[in-house]
Write a structure and sequence with these properties.
By secondary structure, the protein is mostly helical. It has one domain. Helix content is 95%, strand content 0%. Helix 1 packs across helix 2.
Length: 88
Amino acid sequence: MNKTDAGSTNRMVDEKMDALKDTVKGLADQGAQKVDALKTKVLEAKDQAIGRGSALLDRATEMIRANPLKSVGIAFVAGYLGMRLFRR
């Protein structure tokens, strides 16, 4: 092999390596974008769940304050039934 063949082979290898590097960089960028989008969706879902949980807790608190005797009775019955179910 003469010097010009070796030089052109090296150039071709370098070009292919550069193309491969660009492809890998593009894939890494796409992966980072998808991770960011997924992170945003997860944070939104978490915020919605916290909001719904707070609303349910507020509603339950209002119902308990409005009907304290019923609340104690329901809690007692639920505890009794739970005890009976778990003893078996």
